[in-house]
Design goal:
The structure holds two protein chains of two kinds. Chain A contains ten helices and 14 strands. Chain A is an alpha/beta fold. Chain A has two domains: about 220 residues, P-loop containing nucleotide triphosphate hydrolases (Rossmann fold, 3-Layer(aba) Sandwich); about 60 residues, ACT-like. Chain A, domain 2 (Alpha-Beta Plaits). A six-stranded mixed beta sheet of chain A has the order 6-7-8-3-9-10, with helices on both faces. In chain A, strands 2-1-4-5 form a four-stranded antiparallel beta sheet, with helices on one face. In chain A, strands 12-13-11-14 form a four-stranded antiparallel beta sheet. The N terminus and C terminus of chain A are likely disordered. Chain B is mainly alpha-helical. Classes of the chains: A alpha/beta, B mainly alpha.
């Protein structure tokens, strides 16, 4: 696997080197090496049980790796560095009986903020999100989405350099999800590195600059999102034209294959996979005499499909391994 | 360190402000005061007089029975049928069996179950009367008999402290009360630690917390914070109970509740009897003021208080860290049972052995249990107060406790660290063992 050739421009905020973690005989992470570039959004992907949470817990120093090391900003990470991280776990919650303001203040102080400073910043956040009225409410009086908002604030309040968000959109309605999404982008623009673990592939396409895909304890895909999508593209184009699809197929000859075609009104929309060495220009030149081309667009695979492909490809091998074990 | 302080403060301040804490703080002393008044009241209610009919066909008793204002005796020389007894005014019927002087036996019939106090009264009066009858029969002068029967009164002395009477057992009782206090405290607040850990796990707040602090800090902060809640509660209880009792006695001031009157009315006698049954002879020998002063001056107060603080703190930390580990390993209260059992048993053994220690301080069980760290806090307290523990034994017991305490908190910390992040898994002992070896 060729990984991270476009990373060279920015030094990584986080560098993982050969991270391995075992629980008894079970290997949860197997030699994970990857970089999280600074000032960008990084997507940590993988099916359930792949080891994402274990990896995040190692980065946040909740547990330690059996092998390998974690470098933050080029330096081996220490316990003091956790104050530079903001972590929103997937399994999250607040003390139900505690008041919102008091609790947010407590969590901020645990991160090392002085009380006065924490209070000032909290007031700012609460004012910005227009939730001042919640300050003296108990958490149990809030709805799930409201509690999640408070939780998000407490995660970013100490202005971490590296923000790790595990499924940050779960439990939010579309309006609040949008609020969080904009907040993530705002923080990124302010120079914060964001590590996003999510199952929502559309938000990966939308937010992430780079990804790492973990499956069954191993890193199977790693790099720039645009590049990965291009790498997975199989030279397929959508051609909208006026004319006969049989004529198109004949015109393509050996340069490409007509996958399918849909007729709508006077236009036909065809998906064409070009032969390996064929160039789009040559193909167009070849078909132009036969049909009236209206539009051409490359079909870039969706992250959703790449995910399924990357994880699915490995499955048979694992099944065999499972039998021989 | 700063973070531990924050955690301690949160545990303390949120608990102290809870309505349940306030309710318990006010209700606790009321219950205790209520119990004290209740006992006094029940004691005074014992006035419901009993009319005891003694059926003495052989006429041995004569006029030798002495009634009191609560138990009055009536004699009958002839058999009284069951139906006559039922219809009659008497509440108790005692039938002296044949040849009662040589073969002292009697059957007692009652309409409602008499209290232990009444039973004792009936028994001792009849005993005395029959004894006098026997003396008459043998032509022995009762006064002479009384002289002959004088029991030997043994006062004990420590050879190292000649000239000072030793109240070892009385002092042991003081130690026992210290031990008992530990027992109550460790249970009440240790279980709160366990609940607190479970609450954090169920709320899912724990992972947020341990991304800021180490699990061990979180655990210790909780344990210490809850201990402070306990101290506060006990302090308030002592103050409130004291106030209520003093004010209450002052208001009711009436002779009835005066300690002296209570003693005469037999409340203290009753309590004394109860204590005697529970194997506490110290209380039975009667405590007058001189004796109390003597006992108190004999107790090495700095040593006992020092030992108490040491054993109390170490014992609490030992047990509450174990309970914290249990709380971290389970998902719900019902799953705690299998793990609670082995933690509860040593505590109960300790309390039982401490009772033995009061009577028999040199028993091997007492000796061993004062070294075994899970039982030593309570058992050693009795020995220290009694002054029966040589310095080397005390130091050994303390050293063992400290080593064990460090080891178990380390152990509990490891289980805790893994347990709090483990959801939806029914945990077995085997599983717990495995957690110990996971790398931090």
């Amino acid at each position: 696997m060729q990984a991270g050739d476009t990373f060279a421009t920015t030094s990584p905020m986080l560098h993982l080197e050969g991270i391995t973690k075992r629980f008894g005989t079970f290997t949860a992470l197997d030699g994970i090496t990857m970089d999280v570039p600074a000032g960008q959004v990084f997507g940590l992907l993988g099916p359930n049980g792949a080891g994402k949470t274990t990896l995040i817990r190692i980065i946040t120093r909740i547990s330690g790796p059996d092998e390998g090391r974690v470098l933050l900003d080029g330096q081996p990470m220490t316990q003091e560095d956790v104050a530079r991280l903001g972590y929103l776990p997937e399994e999250r919650g607040l003390y139900k009986k505690m008041k919102v303001g008091e609790q947010a203040l407590y969590l901020a102080q645990l991160k090392g903020l002085k009380k006065a400073e924490a209070l000032k910043r909290l007031k700012e956040w609460f004012a910005r999100w227009e939730i001042d009225g919640w300050w003296n409410k108990k958490v149990e009086e809030l709805s799930k989405g409201m509690a999640q908002k408070v939780q998000f604030i407490t995660t970013v309040l100490h202005e971490p350099k590296l923000l790790i968000l595990d499924e940050p959109f779960s439990g939010f309605d579309p309006i609040n999800a949008e609020l969080i999404r904009n907040e993530i982008l705002r923080l990124r623009d302010a120079g914060v590195t964001v590590m996003l673990s999510t199952h929502s592939m559309p938000s990966v396409e939308e937010l992430c600059d780079n990804i790492g895909l973990i499956d069954k304890a191993k890193l199977v895909l790693h790099g720039n999102v645009r590049e990965i999508r291009r790498r997975y593209s199989d030279n397929t184009y959508r051609i909208d034209f006026k004319g006969n699809k049989v004529a198109l197929a004949n015109a393509l000859a050996f340069m490409g294959e007509l996958l399918d075609a849909q007729e709508k009104d006077e236009y036909t929309s065809a998906r064409v996979r070009l032969a390996r060495d064929a160039k789009l220009n040559d193909v167009l030149r070849q078909i132009l005499p036969s049909v009236d081309v209206h539009g051409v667009q490359e079909e870039v695979p969706r992250m959703h499909d790449i995910f399924i492909k990357a994880v699915g490809e490995r499955a048979p091998e694992e099944v065999i391994a499972g039998f021989t074990e | 360190m700063n973070k531990i302080r924050l955690i301690i403060w949160r545990e303390f301040s949120t608990r102290v402000r809870k309505p349940s804490f306030l309710i318990m703080t006010v209700l606790g002393p009321l219950l205790i005061a209520g119990a004290i008044f209740g006992m006094a009241w029940i004691g005074s209610q014992e006035n419901t007089a009993h009319q005891v009919l003694v059926v003495d066909t052989e006429g041995v008793i004569g006029t030798r029975l002495e009634g009191s204002d609560r138990v009055s005796f009536f004699l009958s020389g002839e058999q009284v049928t069951d139906s006559a007894f039922k219809a009659g005014p008497y509440t108790i019927r005692v039938v002296l069996l044949k040849d009662v002087l040589n073969d002292p036996h009697a059957d007692l019939y009652y309409k409602t179950v008499p209290s232990e106090f009444v039973m004792n009264r009936v028994r001792s009066e009849l005993d005395k009367a029959i004894e006098l009858a026997r003396l008459d029969k043998e032509k022995i002068d009762p006064e002479a008999f009384e002289k002959i029967r004088k029991p030997l009164d043994i006062d004990s002395f420590d050879i190292e402290k000649v000239g000072q009477q030793s109240y070892a057992q009385e002092r042991a009782v003081i130690g026992f009360f210290f031990g008992y206090f530990m027992f109550i405290f460790i249970f009440m607040y240790g279980v709160q630690v366990m609940r607190g850990v479970m609450e954090e796990k169920q709320n899912r707040v724990v992972e947020v917390l341990i991304s800021s602090v180490k699990p061990f800090q979180l655990m210790m902060g909780k344990i210490i914070g809850i201990a402070l809640v306990g101290f506060t509660q006990f302090l308030l209880w002592i103050i409130i109970t004291g106030t209520i009792t003093i004010v209450g006695l002052g208001v009711l001031g009436a002779s009835q509740y005066d300690p002296a009157t209570l003693a005469q009315n037999g409340v203290t006698t009753e309590m004394r009897d109860q204590l005697m049954q529970q194997g506490m002879p110290a209380a039975s020998s009667g405590l007058d003021e001189d004796k109390i002063t003597a006992i108190i001056t004999q107790v090495n107060i700095p040593l006992v208080l020092g030992a108490f603080l040491f054993y109390f703190i170490c014992g609490y930390l030992l047990y509450s860290s174990l309970l914290a580990a249990i709380g971290s390993a389970v998902d719900s209260e019902t799953d705690t049972q299998q793990f609670m059992f082995p933690v509860t048993i040593p505590m109960i053994i300790a309390i039982v052995v401490a009772q033995i220690a009061v009577m028999n301080p040199t028993s091997p069980a007492v000796l061993w249990c004062s070294f075994i760290p899970l039982t030593s806090p309570i058992v050693m307290m009795v020995r220290v107060a009694m002054g029966s523990a040589p310095v080397w034994q005390l130091l050994l017991s303390m050293a063992l406790l400290v080593i064990t305490f460090i080891f178990t908190t380390w152990l509990a910390g490891r289980i805790y660290r893994t347990g709090i992040l483990m959801y939806g898994k029914k945990v077995s002992w085997r599983e717990l063992g495995k957690w110990l070896f996971y790398k931090g």
